[in-house]
Design the sequence.
């Protein structure tokens, strides 16, 4: 179990235990586009949860996704390929959200751009996530503290504002919803403000 300490699989597993049934999570990072990285994460998460994690690719159909989530409805499911969903598809997913409610946990694998579309066009699904958004690096592993701080410093330098100001603007509802700011909030462990 020590191999998973501090990784996204371990962190999600702990949060799943705390939140209990009907919980939703987002895994944010470029590695989510890689089928192998998604499968590796599903395997790691299964070891942490001591349960089989089903990997379900989104095909563009809300009906197909709903049927995958209902049968069975109690196992952990990791949904990949969500980067193909455009604004209309996210709206359709949001409208059909009651068909996706299930006892088992749901993990959405997203890029920063996809998370931005989700927030803009699927507010009810966004509310399912709460602050349970995890950021991974290009290897599919959790970012180290140094990598996280390096990226935050890069964002502060590029946009010429501090992280404290980003949080203040997000709390006030005046932070732009562009992907860099979404990523920044997640890096600051403030996914609840996305």
Sequence:
């Amino acid at each position: 179990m020590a191999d998973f300490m501090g990784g996204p699989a371990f962190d999600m597993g702990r949060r799943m235990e705390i939140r209990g049934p009907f919980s939703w999570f987002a895994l944010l990072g470029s590695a989510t586009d890689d089928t192998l990285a998604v499968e590796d994460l599903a395997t790691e998460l299964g070891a942490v949860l001591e349960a089989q994690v089903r990997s379900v690719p989104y095909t563009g159909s809300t009906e197909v996704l709903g049927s995958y989530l209902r049968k069975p409805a109690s196992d952990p499911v990791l949904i990949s390929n969500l980067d193909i969903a455009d604004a209309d598809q996210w709206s359709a997913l949001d409208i059909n959200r009651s068909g996706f409610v299930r006892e088992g946990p749901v993990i959405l694998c997203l890029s920063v751009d996809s998370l931005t579309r989700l927030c803009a066009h699927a507010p009810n699904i966004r509310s399912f996530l709460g602050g349970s958004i995890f950021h991974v690096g290009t290897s599919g592993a959790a970012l180290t503290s140094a990598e996280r701080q390096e990226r935050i410093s890069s964002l502060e330098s590029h946009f010429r504002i501090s992280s404290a100001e980003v949080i203040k603007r997000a709390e006030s509802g005046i932070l732009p919803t562009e992907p860099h700011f979404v990523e920044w909030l997640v890096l600051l462990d403030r996914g609840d403000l996305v």
